[in-house]
Design brief:
The chain is of the alpha/beta class and about 290 residues long. Helix content is about 40%, strand content about 15%. The protein has one domain (about 30-285): Phosphatidylinositol (PI) phosphodiesterase (TIM Barrel, Alpha-Beta Barrel). It has helices at about 1-20, 30, 50-60, 100-105, 135, 155-165, 180-190, 200-210, 225-230, 235-245, 260-265, 275-285, and strands at about 35-40, 65-70, 80, 145-150, 170-175, 195, 220-225, 250, 270-275. Strands 1, 2, 3, 4, 5, 6, 7, 8 and 9 form a 9-stranded mixed β-sheet that branches. The longest helix has 17 residues, at about 1-20. The radius of gyration is 22 Å and the shape is globular. Mean pLDDT is about 90; it is low at about 1-25.
């Protein structure tokens, strides 16, 4: 009897070694919907890329994907702003990378925001400043963030440092136009999810259409497209489904028209980034 039990236990152990368990845990980006995506925090409703925008979003939509842009200042601080310069959104002028954090912080980040085409400027002079990445991440301990790295010395390294300091590594996806930024990020922090850049996206689409897709292993977690890019690359709904079958999240930007929102929702995309979150939220509630 003991001999049979011993043989049985050895067999179970060998079986466990021969058939490793697959990790089926979902990432925070798949545990619940990220369909409602706020481009720059909903830039037509609040001053873009500001703490007030993300605070207002968090109050309203617990499952929203919050998108933002980051630059590094001359003294290595990671600040949340889209443009290379501060001219369009603040009462100052100059390149972000050439300014110190103190200089950037002194500006009014809501100076030019107007919800009615320039008739009123309701947030001007209210003390709204350009925030640090850490400040925005700390607006919510549960929301997911899509962070586009724009420019500045060691932008990947300083961005990752801020994410780690905020304890948000599992709630962020990093994106960038220069492929080098993504490569740097993956080398420094493989635990943080990344978006396809134009080079890796081209390789992936070639594999999808002409290679062995069954054996393809995704390099990144998300691909972000515009409707124009979808048309340019003739990416079909069936192909989008095949991307999703590999665990690749498909996000579209920047979608502000109701008809286009409905088309993409019908297609089954994972997220839609919009400047008008109230409009998209109403459509989602209706559906």
């Amino acid at each position: 009897m003991k001999k049979c039990l011993k043989i049985f236990l050895i067999g179970v152990a060998l079986s466990a070694v021969a058939e490793p368990q697959t990790d089926t845990r979902k990432s925070p980006f798949e545990e619940r919907s990220i369909l409602l995506g706020l481009h720059r925090g909903g830039r037509e409703q609040w001053p873009e890329n500001t703490v007030i925008a993300y605070q207002e979003a968090v109050k309203r939509w617990p499952d929203a994907l919050l998108e933002l842009d980051v630059h590094a200042t001359a003294d290595g601080q990671v600040v949340v702003i889209h443009d290379d310069t501060v001219d369009r959104t603040t009462n100052g002028s100059g390149s972000v990378w050439a300014m110190t954090f103190e200089e950037v912080r002194a500006l009014d980040a809501a100076y030019h925001f107007s919800p009615d085409g320039g008739t009123s400027f309701p947030w001007r002079g209210k003390g709204i400043t350009i925030p640090t990445l850490k400040e925005v991440l700390e607006v919510s301990p549960t929301h997911r963030f899509l962070i586009e790295m724009k420019d500045g010395d060691n932008i990947a390294a300083v961005t990752i440092a801020a994410i780690r300091e905020a304890g948000a590594t599992d709630r962020c996806i990093l994106a960038a136009i220069p492929p080098q930024f993504i490569e740097d990020a993956r080398a420094i922090a493989p635990e943080i999810a990344t978006c396809y850049d134009f080079l890796s996206a081209a390789t992936m689409l070639n594999e999808l259409r002409h290679g062995d897709w069954e054996k393809y292993v995704p390099e990144h977690k998300m691909i972000a497209l515009s409707p124009k890019l979808q048309e340019q690359f003739n990416l079909t709904e069936a192909e989008i489904k095949r991307l999703q079958s590999k665990g690749i999240l498909v996000t579209f930007w920047t979608v502000n028209e109701e008809e286009e929102m409905r088309r993409l929702l019908d297609m089954g995309v994972d997220s839609i980034l919009t400047d008008k979150p109230d409009v998209l939220a109403a459509i989602l509630e209706e559906r």
